[in-house]
Amino acid sequence: MKHLLTTADLTRADAISILDTAAQMAATQSREIKKLPTLRGRTVVNLFFEDSTRTRISFETAAKRLSADVINFSAKGSSVSKGESLKDTALTLQAMGADAVVIRHQSSGAPHTLATSGWVDSAVINAGDGMHQHPTQALLDAYTIRRHLSGERRDARDPAAAPLAGAGLGGDLTGLKVAIVGDVLHSRVARSNVQLLHTLGADVTLVAPPTLVPVGVEAWPCAVSYHLDEVLTDVQPDAVMMLRVQRERMSSAGGGFFPSPLEYTRNYGLDRRRLAHLPDHTIVMHPGPMNRGLEISAEAADSPRAVIVEQVANGVAVRMAVLYLLLAGDMSNQVPAQNVSSQKVSSQKAGHQ
Amino acid sequence: MTSGPVTPSSGPTFSDANASVPDPVEVLGATEISRALTRIAHEILERNKGGADLVLLGIPTRGVPLARRLAERLAEVEPGLDAAALVGTLDVTMHRDDLHRQPPRVIGSTNLPDGGIDGRVVVLVDDVLFSGRTIRAALDAISDIGRPRAVQLAALVDRGHRELPIRPDYVGKNLPTSLSERVQVRLAEIDGDDAVVISQPGPTGEARA
């Protein structure tokens, strides 16, 4: 793995190795000294062409916890606002010697272009491109689901029943049912999640008004429904992921995608009544930022079932894992098919010096 | 106990083309390993005047079962000790200085016994002591999780060739080796049987792993 561009590239073994590494990273984050020397001397550039708070801060925190140097670059206030192209920006970064470029861009495919054009030698990590992919978000969602729902069922309404440290280590999500609800059309989070959760063996159901379901969804490895109540009763999902209604990508109030915010809330919002219908162990997720009162009620967002704040914390661990796996090792003589299990051999103390 | 030469399961397979390479030699068997651990356990108690304040931290992968076995022996000798409460694991992967020279390593887990390591005597336990770089990484890792009163080092095999000023406090067996040889420790908990095996590398330098 040289770049992380889309969750479609990840095999089940890759994904599990990232989640397991994230679990070990998370364990280090409960210590008094959270910083590790692992990426000392490496440089990570956060190249953000689109607004973001949590993803950028999360990547910055992850890189700093691993002792990498972080350079933040946002399009506002840079030469991009003077009309500099992606290529020239990339060549500048290359000249400065970045080891990894974390890129968020409003155009789908910009990270792919950066990774395959030969403009930069560094590892490229997609932090969200247009309506295409947001792989680290999907990984942190999968990590959160695995942590809470692998093994025995706990009552998610009981705040004391937190999962044990290291829960789900080495496992996948086989048999778990996940409902992804809301603005699927504009959501790169949904696209990344559908592919990753499917790879890990979960059954995904998308729930959205017909206007917010993308063309070509029948080719995705998931079920599609237009009725939230039916899905909650019939599928009995183990995790419900509410998506943000992306009003900035719609022209006006509902942008013609739905008649009114109130009607959207009635049909697709997670409110008190729907919350009460969920199975005891079901967790409520949201990639953030939330529109409280639109796709999720304050009651649902603040309930003990909600793991939304934990998702943010898990995001740092998952991004530490991705940075570690992309930057810590020497990939130059690695056979592409080689996976983590075959590397265990190298931990023997043979004459490898 | 296994007698005769043992072929390491993950080692190179020998074909007719390199038949001149000698078979792997078993230098320690199960009883010798058991005897060495019992002696080390007594030495630890002797040196520290008992088992109070002791913490055994095993370095993954094979240091972990060795630390458990040592703790069981300590508890047998000193009735007041609880074996499970003595043992922890310490992953050093993220503190290594050779990360950039090979593909990414799998990160093991770090679990400390209740009470942590502050003010206690930590005995690091590893299978093979070689360059000393793993132990240097372990010392760095320890300083990130606490401040023990003292740190000691127990290794089942010391094969020499130190690259850093590090020496063990307790050694199961000193094993003179050449740099090109592989020393492999096999433990029942992980590999199915107990043995220490020396093998020669293949002609293509497979020992570089």
From TrEMBL, chain A:
Which ranges carry the Aspartate/ornithine carbamoyltransferase Asp/Orn-binding domain?
A: 175-326
Q: What is its EC number?
A: 2.1.3.2
Which GO biological process categories is it annotated with?
Answer: 'de novo' pyrimidine nucleobase biosynthetic process; 'de novo' UMP biosynthetic process; amino acid metabolic process
- One Pfam family name is OTCace_N
Q: Which residues bind carbamoyl phosphate?
A: R54, T55, R104, H134, Q137, G288, P289
Using the UniProt record, name the top-level EC class of this enzyme in a single word.
Answer: transferase
Matching Gene3D superfamilies: Aspartate/ornithine carbamoyltransferase
- Asked whether the keyword tRNA processing is assigned, the reply is no
Recorded GO CC terms: cytosol
Q: Which residues form the Aspartate/ornithine carbamoyltransferase carbamoyl-P binding domain?
A: 2-146
* Pathway where it operates: Pyrimidine metabolism; UMP biosynthesis via de novo pathway; (S)-dihydroorotate from bicarbonate: step 2/3
Q: Name one GO molecular function term.
A: aspartate carbamoyltransferase activity
InterPro entries xrefs: Asp/Orn_carbamoyltranf_P-bd (IPR006132), Asp/Orn_carbamoylTrfase (IPR006130), Asp/Orn_carbamoylTrfase_sf (IPR036901), Asp_carbamoyltransf (IPR002082), Asp_carbamoyltransf_Asp/Orn-bd (IPR006131)
Q: Where does L-aspartate bind?
A: K82, R188, R244
Annotated keywords: Pyrimidine biosynthesis, Transferase
Catalytic activity, as annotated: carbamoyl phosphate + L-aspartate = N-carbamoyl-L-aspartate + phosphate + H(+)
Q: Which domain of life is it from?
A: Bacteria
- How is this protein organized at the quaternary level? Heterododecamer (2C3:3R2) of six catalytic PyrB chains organized as two trimers (C3), and six regulatory PyrI chains organized as three dimers (R2).
Which NCBIfam families does the UniProt entry name for this protein? Answer: asp_carb_tr, PRK00856.1
Describe its function.
Catalyzes the condensation of carbamoyl phosphate and aspartate to form carbamoyl aspartate and inorganic phosphate, the committed step in the de novo pyrimidine nucleotide biosynthesis pathway.
PANTHER family according to UniProt: ASPARTATE CARBAMOYLTRANSFERASE, ORNITHINE CARBAMOYLTRANSFERASE, MITOCHONDRIAL
Q: Spell out the family assignment given in the record's similarity comment.
A: Belongs to the aspartate/ornithine carbamoyltransferase superfamily. ATCase family.
Xref: HAMAP family: Asp_carb_tr
What's the name of the protein?
A: Aspartate carbamoyltransferase
Which species expresses this protein natively?
Sanguibacter gelidistatuariae
UniProtKB/TrEMBL annotation, chain B:
**Could you tell me which Pfam families the record lists for this protein?**
Pribosyltran
Q: Which GO terms describe its biological process?
A: regulation of DNA-templated transcription
The residue ranges crossing the membrane are none
Is Ligase given among the entry's keywords?
Answer: no
Keyword Ribosomal protein among record annotations: no
| The EC number(s) this enzyme carries | 2.4.2.9
Picking any one GO molecular function of the record gives: uracil phosphoribosyltransferase activity
Q: Compositionally biased, Polar residues: which spans?
A: 1-18
Q: Which reaction does it catalyse?
A: UMP + diphosphate = 5-phospho-alpha-D-ribose 1-diphosphate + uracil
Spans annotated as Disordered: 1-21
Q: What is this protein called?
A: Bifunctional protein PyrR
Species of the source: Sanguibacter gelidistatuariae
